[in-house]
Amino acid sequence: MENLDRLPALPLIANNPYFSIWLPGDTLNAAAPVHWSGAPKGLNGSAVIDGREYCWLGKSSRPSMETVSLKVTPTRTVSVMRAAGVGLTAAFWSPALPDDLDALSTPITFVDVSLVSLDGRAHSVSLRFFASGDLCYDGQVPPPLQGEQFAYEGLSMAFIGQAQQRVLGHSGDHITMDWGYLYLAAPEGVRYLENRGLSFTKELDIGAEPCGTHLLLGYDDVAAIDYFGAYCKNWGMRDGKTMPQALSAFSQRRAELLSACERLDEAVLSEAERIGGEDYRLIAAAAWRHTFAAHALIATPGGEMAFLSKENDSNGCIGTVDVSYPSIPLFLRFCPELVNALCRPVLRFASLPVWQDDFAPHDVGRYPHATGQVYAAKKPLPNGRTAPLYYLYPAGTDVYDPRYQMPVEECGNMLIMLEAALSFGADDSLIRRYAGLLDQWVRYLNDCGEDPGEQLCTDDFAGHLARNVNLSAKAFVGIACYARILSRLGRTEEARRWEARAHALAESWLRRAFDGTSAALTFDGTGWSMKYNLVWDRVLGLHLLPEEFYEAETRSYLGHVNEFGLPLDSRADYTKSDWLVWSACLTVDPALFRQLIAPLAHYLRATPTRVPFSDWYDTKTGRYVAFIARSVQGGVYMPMIIP
Q: What is the pLDDT of residue 3?
């Protein structure tokens, strides 16, 4: 088949961690749709052509339409199919537009379907679509459901949801939505099927001219996030907008939104192809909706934005600092204020009495409850149970086990993220409001970052590691970023001292870690590793290490590359896609960059594991190890922010 963008799984609905439905196959009718976690979620589409029914979406016992082409762009999944002399084009698209955050944060996906006669004959077609009520609950046992159908501002509309609602009634990982209401809207033909789901049917006579319709799927989650005790709405619903109003507004804006999506797709993919050819175009297309859909963008009680990730297929944490850190290249390039929105909840929690450590937190809760760090908590939290209200605990409460904290990691991450956001044009209110915290965190890096003791880093799946060379690099990069922050605050003399300290630490690091050809995994000279944390030296122009080091280090990676990519380090064959791309960005040689990212594109095209773009997979087998649909894939946009 020509013109097929082969991905491990195709994005159908990709709005947030709950409204996230994927097709684990090469074509729209190769498999049944599932939630990112693998739970079946019923979406089906068929076309009865001259009395015979053909499947165009989902897995069916009926004949399937033949796929002619399939393209995945940042905002759209478009499939062209044919059967019995009729051509059908189906497009699932979401206005994931970083310059229209109201549209981006509203959980609505369009499904456009058009039909045309391919044989020059007239055809009678009944176009059908079904969305199951299982999108409204977690697990395999259906609870009592209720719904209704009605007309609203020129649209045929219906909704379905549980008869008894428990809003924000759980937290954890591998859990799907379990409250709220699924909506389906179209110009006509939408029905509520009692206790089953929502359906659409339209009768069409196909002649010489194309014809079709558009559907809208929306999810009213009632409340998106528990934000330190306040039940908050998605940013686009913050002023009391209802889902019927949102669906109507999206329908009226459809042409405008589609045009904006087409322009964005063209701009992003053209830039990606210029940087890294067809391989990088595919990587960029695979990561866009994927990244945004791992977050909820909400309005805080104070009217500010909070951008909260979920650690999908990891531990379910919300607002994890070392998950935000790898994600930010996408946001820096297209909407730097979202990086501030990632940092805002962390800074708030770190200012509360319960947080008494002199380093930055790891997270702010477990999705969808931003109620205080759960990682390293001494009391285990069973999956599904709502997160504790740690934000209310007084000072002196013994909550966390220090062995499972990530102090150098998170201090460095926060300082780098805040300075990077400012460098790309974000507002400076956070560094002014929380300057005292930043002063505290840089002192921790200064005291403990030069030659770190046995600590966890963001690659915590690899276990504790003492004298971690890459983690030490994060410390002096973080200190250099802090010096830049001080300059912005007008604290010029302090800024000079901290900048000098960062350079002194970088020189010490280079002497102890680099043997002239590559830098080791640990300061005792053991092994090798990606030095992805150093990429900010290039991005922000910190001038910490010489060009000769970067070229030698990057070329040393070539001897370790396997079929599906460069391993994370010498301890195992697995890799991380975000860090792989960051490490490739350490070189200024375009050919070497392309050589290092090509195996990642090969992974997307050939992996036998049909899950949304995994960032942790085996470089020899191409099978994913863990981590599905995570926000860190925003990191593959790093090449777009290299000067």
A: 80
Is 6 in contact with 283 (CB distance < 8 Å)?
no
**pLDDT above 90 covers what percent of the chain?**
97
Cα–Cα distance, 238 to 240 (Å, whole number) = 6
Sequence length of the chain is 643
Element spanning 230, H or E: strand 230-232
The answer for residues whose C-beta is within 8 angstroms of residue 621's C-beta and 6 or more apart is 564
At 462 the pLDDT is: 86
Q: Which domains does the chain have, with CATH numbers?
A: 10-233+244-265 (2.70.98), 304-641 (1.50.10.10)
Residue 508's Cβ-count burial label (10 Å; 0-12, 13-18, 19+) is middle
Greatest CA separation for the chain: 81
Residue 1, pLDDT above cutoff 70:
no
- Report the alpha-carbon distance of residue 512 to residue 526 in Å, rounded: 12
How many CA atoms within 13 Å lie on the side-chain side of 502? 26
Strand partners, 148: 159
- CA–CA dist 162, 577 (Å, integer): 38
Tell me: the pLDDT tens digits for 404-421? 999 999 999 999 999 999
Which tokens in the block code for residue 343? Answer: 């940092």
Neighbouring C-beta atoms of residue 507, cutoff 10 Å: 13
- Per-residue DSSP letters for 14-78? ESSSSSEEEE-SSSTTSS--EETTS-B--EEEEEEETTEEEEEES--SSPBPEEEEEEE-SSEEE
Q: Print the SS3 string covering 349-368.
A: HHCCCCCCCCCCCCCCCECC
